[in-house]
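User: Round two. Same drill as before: sequence, then structure, for each protein.

Assistant: Same drill it is. First protein:
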Amino acid sequence: MPEEEEQDPQPAPQETPPEPAPAPQEPGSAPAGQPAPPAPAPAAPAPPAPAPAGGHEKPFAGARRSWKFVLKFLAFSLVFWGLEFAYQWYVLIPGEVGGALVRSFALAGATFFGLALCSSAVFRWKPRWVKYWYVRRSLGVMGFVFIILHFVSTQQFLFNWDLPALFWSLDPFQNPVLFGLAAMPIFFLLAITSFDWAVDKLGQRKWKAIHRLVYFGYLFSVFHFLLINPALLLNPAGYLLLAVTALAVGGDLYWFIRTVVAKKSSKLGIAVGVLVILLWLVFGYLGFVAPALQAGAAPQAPAPPEPGVDPELQEDVEAMQRFMERNELPVPNATLPGERDFQGERVAAQGQFQNLHYQTAGTASLTQANGSWYVVFGEDFATPNGPDLVVYLTPNQEPTQREDIGEGIVLGDLRALEGRQAYPIPRDVNVSLFHSVTIHCRAFNVPWSYAPLEAV
């Protein structure tokens, strides 16, 4: 929440801080020279030290002066992301490199932004720690880097760089991708102005005005990851992100209320703070309360899992079903290979799709044509639409568990909901080691359907 504007403590010339990070800057202002609560303590700083005497600050000069800190923080950031990736790849979605990259970049970026905002409240609570303000900026810059990598990996592995597909719905509560897209230009603006030369060029007043936008960018990003797939947050990595988010939002709200009560905030600061709070309330109502009211006053208790069914898998299935009920999903409609691609085809194995959680019908075959191997769905293939459906070639003949795709080969996103379609198998794959075709919901890590392959 916005807080009062204060004089920024400047480090001693011999201890010029480094510069990586777009640090969140408290919106709001107080008359110049007035101390902020708690009383005589200095507030959390925002801008860096002034440019060296006799000239303007050059781009990245502070980073060059503090290159040791920059390298250490970069190493810390890579280790943190590496742990996020390893947890996704080894535990939650074994062997799914694309999904693990998408999730780990998102979690790392959102967590770093939350920590950057948390530090603002911490500096007010412990003013003697204000000398570490440059860590806040470093967290912000690395958070932005991770968010950019999240966007790139999402395009590469989920959307195949089909940018118009991002706008399949213009309602951000149906298509939370829009919240993420709204946050990105704000974070970009904060990132490119987070260095000493930007403060020197803009002046502190303009610089602070720009960095107050962080509260709106963070608001958009939080609703993006809360609405896009809530089930993905129900694990230790998600719990960490939720805890950091709660601390960041709670800390900002606490200090905003304190400054308003103490009459240390300007009218502009109060107006911006009230606007941010109203947006949180409105988005929260539209995103969570309104859908719950539409679904019924009292949610029904989930049915007990069937004997032999993994309870965690059952929870993910129910979360996937709720997501499908609430969201209008884009319909896969990729261009399919023509018959000319399959002249002289030979079917080596074939099977019927089996129902797991949704009715799926038709045949799948392992077919050789033109010197290559393909998985081919027959003309009789049909399945309901679902979120992020992916086709695998799997070794287990009955891949009913999520772990069964761990040793599988990703053949690509499901191209269409019905009719003939073909998926080329990489040439270096030994097809004799695989005995089934699996359709898997990657977003919720839920097996959708499978077809056991029997030699013909």
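Second protein:
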Amino acid sequence: MRLLLFAIAFLTLAAASFGQPPANAPYLNPNLPPEQRAKDLVSRMTLEEKVLQMQNSAPVIPRLGVGVYNYWNEALHGVASGRAPVFPEPIGMGASFDPDLVHRVADAISTEARAKYHEAQRHAPIPEVPPGNSPGRIAWLTYWSPNINIFRDPRWGRGQETYGEDPYLTSRMGVAFVKGMQGDDPHYLKVVATPKHYAVHSGPEPLRHTFDAKPSEYDLVNTYLPAFKAAVTEGKADSVMCVYNAVDGVPGCASTDLLEKRLREQWGFQGFVVSDCGAIGDIFRSHRYSPTQGAASVAAVKAGTDLRNSDVAMVFVGLNGSQEGEGHDRSAVDLPEPQESLVKAMIATGEPLYPFGYSEGGREPPGKVHAGIRRCSENEGRYQPRRRSAAGRRPARRRRAVTITRAASNHGLSKSGGGGWSLA
């Protein structure tokens, strides 16, 4: 039910600014079940409208009262939009072996995200989001974090984004981060968290667009998938990002084994799947798995990818079938599941039927929110390993603040981003 609450809210407030929706439309009735509202809205969309809603920069649909929405926001260790506290890199938080600390940090990050979103609501509605718009421009409520890949080789280049090499530790940290971001309200999400990159994305970084990972079934199940399974089954993540690379010869975003069999059927995932930036194009350009870009789009949708990141023109051409020589199966985009998954996720944040979100108590001005986050980093970011002395007794515990966990406190409000995704 939580997941079914995320896009109708987004639609209603936008109606006043972008157009007049149909009178008495079921999707605008908050007393109806979310499933019914989502189905009603999607049934009113044209093929072109459906396709354009399946990209990270979703445009307005004035006649339905649907406003713009940019799904692309980053929060690996702080909100990557404007000025925000920058917390330690995940590899540093992983070294704390303290899931409660990670939960507190994620809760602080999502509070910051809500504060930025609330502030944005005080201004005039944004008329459009440029196609393929990068993060950090507009603060919305879907965040593409955490990175719960397994860090096996330091030559990867992005290991600092992860919690380390251990599947169990990564699972505990991933669940803590997802729960901290999404909150604990029984009906609404604080923000949507997106564990990434699913799956077997552990370098080498220069080859990520062409690499074909071939783990054994044992290694896949016991090393690379546990953190994602835990994030979905325990953390209830409402979004998952699929990878650039292929797994056993099939690009991750076109893999029915990963997206349907394991993610949805075995783990019961009810959210939406978003591609990594340009990954749908890689299905054709890099992996040569599909004969055309349009065919790659169709393959991704049929496999279970709901939202495309940055492949705007190619997605539209491929699924619309309007490009000369690319007459594809139009029924792929007419399947209700992709659009309904996105609509349900939008309803879950209560945005913007409930413009101040899931918690009316969270409307502190940004300055107070920032101060609270700095206190969280300073007071909770402490780690003291316990060792036994030669006599078998534990030494007296001394509380020691680890310098890296106080980064947000020491640096105050830093401008997040600007250093690659490791700083996003």
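The chain has one domain: 8-362.

User: Perfect.
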